[in-house]
Write a structure and sequence with these properties.
Number of domains: 2
Shape: elongated
Helix content: 40-55%
Number of helices: 17
Strand order of the largest sheet: 4-5-6-7-8
Order of helices and strands: HHHHHHHHHHHEEEEEEEEHHHHHHEEEE
Length: 515
Amino acid sequence: MLRPQRIILHLLILCLALATRSFAADPLAAIEAMPASNPYRAALVQWASLPDEDRKAVDNWISPPDEAAPPVLTTAQKTIVRDLTSAVAATATSPATTAADWAPVPDPKDPDNPFNGSFPTVGPILTLARIAAKTAETLPNSEAIATYAAVAQLGRQQRTGSTLIQQLVGVAIESNALAGASKDLLRFSPAELKQLSAAWSGLQPSPSVETAMAGERDMFLKPFMERTILPGMRAWLAEEAANLAADNPDSPRPAGQDATGRTFTRDLRLSGLMDLGDGERRILLENTQTHLVTTLREGHASEGMTLTGIDFEKRRAYIHHEKGEAVIYLTSKQIVERSRAAAKFRTVLESFSGSFSSEPGGSDKAIRVWLDKISAHPDGADGYIRDLLITYQQILDQQIASAAQAKATPDDATPPPDDPYLRALVPTLGGVARTLQNVETQSVMFQAAINHRLNSLGQTGATPPPDPWSDEGASFTMEPTPDGGFLMRSRYEALPGKPLTYKFAAPDAGFVRVP
């Protein structure tokens, strides 16, 4: 069955959903948030400025909801499509972009967390590329060739971004252009085929697999670990020690607790607890410096504090303040503040609970095992993060090296890392690395297909490039298909035992999922 390449499609869909979440609310504002230096910004603004009904009509034209009856564009909408296609073609000659031109938009509420940033352009840029590629199918040959190459160049430009979502979107864009041009090989003359070959050879180089994968590490993982996870772990470990002491009324308060933890509760102590019935409960807090007593009624604010709950079974009460939250231990009367860093860390744990759900015993047990591992590390949170990043890099290097081998390794051939958090981070790395190698190989296959077509037209000087994954420099294997096209296979495996196969010169040209 022939279909577009969908390796790690679930990851791409998830990333697109997160990256484009602001586009639906205010498309123009989302595009205007992208760096002004990006050469595609004007075309994207043009697209985002269209009325909703026009954007929807063009979207349906690209991907008809009913393929048996594709929608017909109005004259005005056809003009829109031509103008957007011309804008993509014109921008293809711009200087190469850099990562700064595709920088994500940080979340103003959580700027230190790169995972909360957004990529409002990746969805629209993919749409823009699909508009141009579909338009190329109806253009005169020479103009179609230039348009296909412009779309592929857009994909290469997108891949100068620092993140894997940008890499994958760039791959999807280039693959779309490649599939469109592959369908049209039979209609091109020898001169036009040579134009097509030259245009593809003139595309800016793709980043290496190492560079592409390192960008995600440097843009997301390291900053996230250093700015969010590590401070949160430190605060959490401090709170765990304080909680342990507070649960035991005979143990002394941990040294330095007030200096590191308590702020708004420093001079407070629990002086009373009341249960008035009918759900009305209160606590009394005495200021040890002024001896004034503040009564907190559950669910009501007083002196900037709110009693948010009382758990008699655990013998704890919880208060909220604009500076943070605190736990009051009813037995020992000790107060332990919850720092913002620790609170953010707990939020991160909740967001990763789904990744831990497949672990033995479920997510709660896996998270507990993970936290115990951090607590037991001789160098604490700092040592744990240091070791995690070292192990992550070792796994990344192994996956990149594996993707550089023609034979694909089964997913279960490499034992997963011991750390549950690391297991949540690395399962798709090998698939991404192999996807990036796939698209590079497909580009070489395309040049081989062009030369094969030139040879069939009597151009005996056309020498197809060899399969780069052949140790002997042999050609790609090739076979004709009943519809007049031909299949080309590489020795590189897209999946274990599944050679990378591409179909050319046919209406359904493109990547072939080998059964």
